[in-house]
Design a protein that fits this description.
Elements (H helix, E strand, L loop, with lengths): L3 H5 L3 H9 L4 E5 L3 H15 L7 E7 L6 H8 L8 E7 L6 H12 L6 E6 L6 H9 L3 E4 L5 H14 L3 E2 L3 H8 L4 H14 L5 E2 L4 H4 L6 H8 L6 H14 L4 H23 L4 H7 L4 H11 L4 H18 L7 H13 L7
Parallel strand pairs: 1-4, 1-5, 2-3, 3-4, 6-7
Helix pairs in contact: 5-6, 7-8, 7-9, 9-13, 11-12, 12-17, 13-15, 13-16, 14-15, 16-17
């Protein structure tokens, strides 16, 4: 990451490496949790094409309580028909001494057909593994926490990647308004891309309306009440949002839609039989928030979430053509009907 562009985009080296060849081992470590998880997602998306039977993905947490025999069985599983696996092992903390030794021994062998990716916040438990991976021709990448200046540069690059035009001060103002976490910023940029009109330009003055003092947590707080029994609380939050003047009603609908879509994605992953930790790893969200979405989705049915999306789509069309004074009642009706699991009439 010696170049300025490398500092703006720590994933660039991985992208470039994957265009050359597939390595047998990968190790992603460092303080920047969100970049580590994006690196794992990038690796998975590049080498495990969606819908393919030739390459699959397994994710496990490796800690002092893990059964190495179970992990090793996955690492050594092969298919007579050429199928391969990407095995992702997250090492969040302490490993048993025998597990460290067994992992180092496995990495010293001639690589098999499966690909192993290790992810950890530091190398305290993986020094021997790092040396073996490097010797075997694997790729070791460190993702450090970004400085404030690097975070501003990175935010600008992510805005450009979405095709969003913006005033020069906007990236810095976003970094000041949001937690210094790339995952938090990326999440808000997803919402900004929905709220800005096509061809529009984000100005510094727009950020109070689009991000606001509550850092868009207001929408998440509202969404957190969208469950049977939470009607009164949800209506109270809705009134606060509409009365605050911070949110344009037309921008509130896609923000809610984004939240419900993430909940539906989490619900579908759980329905596939994935454990909660694996489902969270598959969401395009930072770790803590991803786990929240999975936990919330576990209490919701697919039918409920689809009803929400259908009703929000209808609300989006009506918000754009009805007078502003009728919108509070329209929002309230949509909210109550959705909480009851009913589709609004066509």
């Amino acid at each position: 990451m010696a170049t300025r562009r490398g500092k703006e985009d720590p994933l660039r080296r991985l992208d470039e490496d994957l265009t050359a060849a597939l390595r047998p081992f990968y190790l992603f470590h460092g303080e920047n949790y969100w970049f580590r998880r994006r690196a794992v997602e990038t690796l998975r998306d590049r080498i495990v094409p969606s819908g393919t039977a030739d390459f699959s993905f397994e994710s496990r947490r490796l800690d002092r309580h893990s059964d190495w025999a179970d992990v090793e069985a996955i690492l050594r599983s092969y298919s007579f028909f050429g199928g391969r696996k990407l095995i992702h092992l997250e090492v969040p903390g302490v490993l048993a001494a025998e597990t460290r030794d067994a992992l180092a021994h496995y990495l010293a062998e001639t690589p098999g057909q499966n690909v192993l990716c290790l992810e950890a916040p530091n190398l305290a438990q993986l020094t021997a593994a790092k040396n073996r991976i490097a010797k075997a021709g694997g790729l070791v990448l460190k993702f450090e926490a970004l400085s404030a200046r690097q975070l501003v540069d990175w935010t600008a690059s992510r805005l450009r990647a979405r095709g969003l035009a913006f005033a020069a001060a906007v990236p810095g103002l976003l970094v000041e308004a949001l937690p210094e976490d790339p995952g938090e910023i990326e999440s808000e940029l997803d919402k900004l891309s929905l709220m800005v009109e096509p061809g529009g330009r984000i100005r510094a003055a727009d950020l109070q309306r689009l991000v606001g003092r509550q850092r868009l947590e207001d929408v998440w707080r509202l969404a957190a009440t969208l469950r049977p029994g939470g009607e009164a609380e949800a209506l109270g939050h809705l009134r606060e949002l509409l009365d605050s003047g911070v949110y344009n009603p037309a921008s509130l609908v896609p923000a809610l839609g984004w939240t419900v879509t993430m909940l539906l994605r989490a619900r579908l992953l759980l329905d596939e039989g994935l454990p909660p930790a694996q489902a969270a790893a598959r969401l395009p969200l930072w770790g803590g928030r991803a786990r929240e979405y999975v936990e919330r989705a576990g209490a919701l049915s697919r039918r409920q979430l689809l009803a929400w999306l259908f009703n929000l789509q209808k609300l989006d069309l009506q918000v754009k053509r009805l007078p502003r004074e009728s919108l509070p009642q329209l929002f309230a009706t949509t909210l109550l009907e959705s909480l009851a699991g009913r589709h609004l009439p066509a």
